[in-house]
Specification:
410 residues; alpha+beta; 6-stranded mixed sheet; 4-stranded antiparallel sheet; 9 helices; extended
Length: 410
């Protein structure tokens, strides 16, 4: 079966075809790194990076920012997560004497320190199909069905945290909606800003009238703070008829504290829940006859609330800021004393964390970011130092270059 010498068996061979592409013989630019090219490249890159750094630092210096840590001052007024009657904590702050506070839009953030949202188990503990409504039966249909079996827990059931409970009132299962550690650890402090002298509130959520407030901003359901793609595609709230039929419990002593501010929910019949076996029971939902409904879900928070949506996009670092509100231009005043009014519900003492309230303008690079400018300076300085080092070596003891005409790349 052996072939004679000099013959090649091509039948069944896996050898690539003898083409320029498959044999990697395509024409390519193969530069020769002469000292002039290396020194010039390092110097050009260094100068470019230093120029970018100057531009970035200049933009960051132009950003106005005021930050105040309030977790320590408000620790003695910590309330339960869904309390409606909370004794507010008041913290003073003052804007600087810069026109930008009045002429630019101002962004409001809350900042958390030492909170590890990037923990693997934590990140996995949510159900994307539940949040989008894909695994919630009849979420937007009219009339809605009576859901008797849940199929929406998804990855929530793999987190190790219990997501279904037995209701001691009727021995039936109650499922958390929304489920998961990310959702159930949501930041839920209520923050308001008012002028210290006049007591007038800054109307940073003026477009939201569903909560019925006019003299102060609505404490929940802000507008235009979450990504449009998240709002449109990833988070779908149930209809009011679905809530009436399938939400056994609805969160909060006040519906507004849980993001449920739809005007039609004013007709929802409820009664205090008491003990339901699950955390954050809130209110027991009744049917139109005033009897407890046959729902299976503890609808403790509205998944379409943009505060909730912002929280669900987890941070990569343990200290992070998340957008809370937007203040339109001319709503703030420069060199003005303000009071931050906090309804303190989010505990941080147990994990040695801190909470900050941040007001900031923006520039073409976003918020204040000195690290990026310093990083460009460091890289640019290293490149220039290498260029100068290679130049000194070339001047002191140059190396004779060979004739590139003798080079071959076959």
């Amino acid at each position: 079966s052996h072939l004679p010498a000099g013959m090649v068996d091509t039948a069944g061979s896996r050898r690539p075809a003898d083409t320029a592409f498959k044999q990697q013989r395509l024409k390519a630019w193969q530069p020769i790194l002469t000292p002039q090219w290396v020194i010039g490249s390092f110097m050009a890159i260094g100068i470019a990076f230093i120029g970018i750094a100057i531009a970035v630092l200049g933009a960051s210096n132009g950003v106005l920012q005021v930050s105040v840590k309030y977790s320590g001052d408000c620790q003695d007024k910590l309330a339960k997560w869904n309390d409606e009657s909370v004794t507010p904590c008041v913290v003073d702050l003052e804007t600087t004497d810069d026109d930008g506070w009045e002429t630019q839009d101002v962004y409001v953030y809350y900042q958390l320190d030492n909170f590890y949202q990037n923990h693997r188990k934590y990140v996995q503990s949510k159900s994307a199909t539940q949040l989008s409504g894909a695994s919630m039966e009849g979420l937007t249909t009219d009339p809605p069905p009576q859901v008797t079996k849940d199929s929406s827990m998804g990855d929530c059931s793999q987190s190790g945290e219990k997501q279904e409970f037995e209701d001691p009132n009727d021995k039936k299962k109650v499922f958390m909606y929304p489920c998961g550690l990310v959702a159930q650890s949501m930041f839920n402090d209520t923050l308001r800003l008012r002028e210290k002298e006049s007591g007038k509130y800054v109307m940073w959520n003026d477009g939201n009238r569903n909560c019925g407030l006019t003299a102060e901003p609505c404490p929940t359901n802000p507008e235009d703070i979450a990504w449009a793609s998240d709002v449109d595609k990833k988070y779908q709230a149930p209809t009011v008829p679905w809530i009436k039929k399938n939400c056994k419990y609805i969160g909060g002593q006040s519906l507004a504290t849980s993001g449920w501010i739809h005007p039609d929910l004013s007709t929802l019949k409820t009664q205090p829940a008491g003990t339901c076996g699950a955390p954050a029971c809130g209110l027991r939902v009744l049917n139109d006859n005033g009897d407890p409904n046959a729902g299976i879900y503890n609808c403790w928070h509205n998944v379409s609330d943009q505060d909730f949506i912002v929280w669900m996009r987890v941070a990569a670092l343990p200290s992070f800021k998340k957008l809370y509100r937007k203040i339109p231009a001319a709503a703030l005043k420069k060199k003005m004393k303000y009071e931050l009014v906090v309804e303190n519900r989010f505990p941080v003492h147990a994990f040695k964390g801190n909470k900050h309230f941040v007001l900031s303008t923006t520039s073409w690079i976003g918020g204040q970011n000195f690290f990026l400018g310093y990083a460009y300076i460091v890289v640019g300085a290293i490149c220039i130092a290498l260029a100068l080092g290679f130049l000194a070596k070339q001047l002191v003891s140059p190396r004779k270059m060979g004739d590139p005409r003798y080079l071959t790349f076959k």
